[in-house]
Amino acid sequence: MTTFIFNEKCELRAENISYEINDKLIINKVFFSVTSGAMLFIKGSNGSGKTTLLRILSGLMQPDEGQTLWNNQRIDEERIEFNQQLTYIGHNTGVKAELSTLENINFFSNICGLPKKENCQSAIEWAGLSGYEHSPGRHLSYGQQRRIAFTRLLMEPSRLWILDEPFTGLDVEMIATLETSFKNHLNNGGLLVLTSHQHIELEQISTKYFHLGS
User: Are 148 and 105 in contact (CB under 8 A)?
Assistant: First the structure.
């Protein structure tokens, strides 16, 4: 399984980000920064704008005010470079219904230019999907599709992981597997931003908390 180590420092910074929906301000002048080796845990009640904020940080939506900076550069001005450093996984798994588990993972592997056979088999075992290699996506549960989506974390050489409710639909064993991957990524110089209704505490990892709506 491929291990990515990042030696250069990196920083994600939100500067006075605001966003309205139907004239209602749901994100109001958000400011924070987080650097390599650290996790930012965004918390808030349902409807507080957590998913919207993650999509803004990922460049998938534009704020009404403010900006997102990656290493002091606006992400909308350095789109290609930023995308090369980002893995964003939201509620939509991206799993193709007509493809099997193995074919979906092969697809991710091909995009990343990784050796197909070795990496795909390791990813299937990591995700606890042995025995489902030839099951089409349409026959898999949401939790199983999420497991396929998270194999991207093993294959994409991204320094920044932005994950929306990563534990939704997963069992205790897979949650523990993800937490181990989070720690390894951060210890290797990566950066993690996530939301979750569950408490997450990674030992010996610098963690920042940001509460939306507070």
Answer: yes
